[in-house]
Amino acid sequence: MRAALGIIAAAFVFVSGCAEKDWIDRTLVTVDVTGTWSGMLGASPSGEIQLELEQQGSTVKGVLKLLGGAAGQSGRFQGGPL
Q1: What is the DSSP track for 10-71?
Q2: How many structural domains compose the chain?
Q3: Range of the domain at 25
Q4: For residue 79, what pLDDT band results from cuts at 50, 70 and 90?
């Protein structure tokens, strides 16, 4: 009887670890990052980075720009939940 309870308890632990997250955890977006963000790369004033972000739900897209020493470098990106 004791062995059977141990097996049932172990099975419960393994199965509960495989449980899928609640749908609200996958769809909940608590922050909107839309806008222009900027900062410095390292300690040099010539290493400025700028992000222009647009968020719709949990998807963020925008442009990354390197200003100063690496002026003219930019690239588009898009990301969402994993």
Answers
A1: HHHHHHHHTPPPPHHHHH-------EEEEEESTT-TTEEEEEEEEEETTEEEEEEEEEETTT
A2: 1
A3: 2-79
A4: confident
